Amino acid sequence: MERDLEEMRVVVQRSKEAAVTVNGELIGSIDQGLVLLVGITHEDTEADVRWMSDKIAGLRIFEDDSGKMNNSILDAGGAILSVSQFTLYGDCRKGRRPNFMAAARPEQAEVLYMQFNKALRTAGLQVATGQFGAMMEVSLINWGPVTLILDSKG
Prior knowledge:
By secondary structure, this protein is of the alpha/beta class. 22% of the residues lie in helices and 36% in strands. The protein has helices at 46-58, 73-76, 106-122, and strands at residues 9-22, 25-30, 33-39, 62-63, 69-71, 79-84, 127-129, 137-151. Strands 1, 2, 3, 6, 7 and 8 form a six-stranded mixed beta sheet that branches. The protein has a two-stranded antiparallel sheet with strand order 4-5. A hairpin with a 2-residue loop joins strand 1 and strand 2 (25-30). The radius of gyration is 15 Å and the shape is globular.
């Protein structure tokens, strides 16, 4: 089954700590929590943003006292490092150079990315971010490792 490229996409990585720097300056950092690489496409709407933020806030990928993944980031008291990542829409099916036509234009993507981060904060989460449109260095200690890919219309 071919995957639909026209949906909001977030790579979720559970981390012990993470940070983003731009030109050697620390822009955002967290201790235990989630690193989110956030991709926005042309057809994404506020409904996709709400669905994705609700999904992430409630995603049970932190261990409970029994060692089972039963706790959400809210239960675990973790924070989020959210990083805009248009390259999630790099279509590499043809040729050797990725095609980024499915990525939303920056003016659309930035608005939805900001709404997404606001929705996470409204859910009660501490959210640090990178710098939209900048060349960023993201470092993290992936905990588990646990890495998931969420699609809003999947």
